[in-house]
Amino acid sequence: MRAALAVVVMAVSLSGGCLNPFAPRLGETGSTEICSDPTSVENIFCSFRNAYSFKDTTLYGSIISPSFTFVYTDYDRAVDVAWGRDDEMRTTYGLFQSVQSLTLTWNNMITSEGDDTSWNAIRGFTLTVTFNPSDISRVDGYANFTLDRPAASDPWRIVRWRDESNY
After folding, report:
1. For the residues 146-159, what does the mean pLDDT come to?
2. Residue 137 — very low, low, confident or very high, per pLDDT cuts 50/70/90?
3. What is the mean pLDDT of residues 69-83?
């Protein structure tokens, strides 16, 4: 068995492949990728997805503005509910701690417009929440984001997120 594994590893490394046959190659599309340019609107979505995939509140916090507001509609009471950055970080931390895994897929972009310092985007998403192997929930919806930054060379931050889902 060990000899067979050694032969496979040598064959892969000699053929110019990845040294670890279980690791994805750089540039392969997957649920996570490197989102290195925070001055790109698309990379804010990429970083958001990665923060959920890795359950990383530090990464998540880096894209959330100090003046952040989250808004959703409580359909049972027929009112909008809002909270700020501190509550958002506490809520997200609780989510990350209470689930086994999160898979966020960004879907169609409904609108995306703005200028060098302010951007609005409404985008569809699918969030799969795995509490345990026998308890998996899937949520489809729309997120309405407002991003801003002081200057075009600064990183984007999410200032406002309105959840436009109907659940």
Report:
1. 97
2. very high
3. 96
Q: Where are the alpha helices (DSSP H) in the chain?
A: 2-14, 41-54, 57-62, 85-98
The CA-based angle 111-119-159, given to 5 degrees, is 115
Look at phi and psi of residue 130 and say left if phi exceeds 0, alpha if psi is from -120 to 50, else beta. beta
Query: What angle (nearest 5°) sits at the alpha carbon of residue 63, between those of residues 61 and 69?
Result: 80
Using one digit for the tens of pLDDT, what is the confidence trace for 2-32?
Answer: 333 333 333 333 333 444 343 343 333 344 5
Structure tokens at 94: 């609780």
Domains assigned to the chain: 1-25 (no CATH), 31-163 (3.10.450.50)
> Tokens 């032969």 label which residue?
7
Mark 53-92 as b/e (b = at least 16 C-beta within 10 Å). bebebebbbebbbeebbbebeeeeeeeeeeeebeebeeeb
Farthest CA pair distance, the chain = 66
Specify the pairing of strand 157-163 against strand 135-148: antiparallel
Q: Name the token pair of 87.
A: 């509550």
